[in-house]
Amino acid sequence: MARIKRSLKLAIVLFIAVLVVFASWLYGQYTVPIMMYHNVADTDEYRANTVRPELFERHMAYLKNHGFRVLSFAQLVQLTKTGQAFPRKSVVITFDDGYADNYEHAYGILRKYGYPAIIFVPTDLMNTDGYLTWDQIKEMAGNGITIGSHTRRHSYLPDLPPAEQRDEIFGSKHAIEQNVGVPAEYFSYPIGGFSEEIKRLVKEAGYQGAAATNRGYDRLNRDVFELKRVRFGDRDDRNDYLWIKLSGYYNLFREAKNPY
């Protein structure tokens, strides 16, 4: 019996030691969650990239009520480049595609909470039906919303020849700067697709960082030109879902996906 007790105590000590080592390792794997939205609108049926306005506000209220610090995309990029540690409960808010409902529904909620965000726009689609107008973009750019590039035509870059990749990447930057009058410093790969050559073009164009979706192999977002994001939509309607996605460890346990 005494031998059994000693063995049990040893097993408990070893188990606790393993837990301590694992917890210490896990602590160092923290990654600032980058929230990714698309449409903010009411719909009659479920759409993966859509969140209802009232649920979007619940997400923003969750951040406030749980003490999250909302960083701008620029802050995230700069702190990552300098290697500084991020405070736990940091988060970044992003939107892709430049839909009109971002202005109609999300913009007012962001202003209500005082949160910065970035909207990545495919510039040739602006001023067309269902998308933002340049006047709306200018207004938001003057009130805490960064405007980033999402190519000219929302093109899947890996499928394009090099000359067209260059046109999409460089042309969209020029369009933003001409129409909004602010530097376009950040890029988002449509559908998350990129390659090392595409990243090189993004850097050459003068962008300071770029967002993917869940593609790529850099789980810890150490490369500011392939920052993984976490998609949010109508199914994220429970606090436990939000807790998991905003934990800072969600990327660590997701399946790695080929960037192209």
Structural write-up:
The structure is a single chain. 41% of the residues lie in helices and 14% in strands. Helix 2 runs parallel beside helix 4 (100-113) and helix 6 (162-180) runs parallel beside helix 7 (196-205). It is an alpha/beta fold and 260 residues long. It folds into two domains: 1-30; 32-253, TIM Barrel, CATH 3.20.20. The protein has helices spanning 2-27, 53-65, 73-82, 100-113, 134-141, 162-180, 196-205, 239-245, and strands spanning 34-37, 39-40, 50-51, 69-71, 90-96, 117-121, 145-149, 186-188, 209-211, 230-231. Helix 3 (73-82) links the parallel strand 4 (69-71) and strand 5. It has eight helices and ten strands. Strands 1, 4, 5, 6, 7 and 10 form a six-stranded parallel sheet that branches. The protein has a two-stranded parallel ribbon with strand order 2-3. The mean pLDDT is 92.
Based on the model shown, name its key terms.
alpha/beta, 2 domains, TIM Barrel
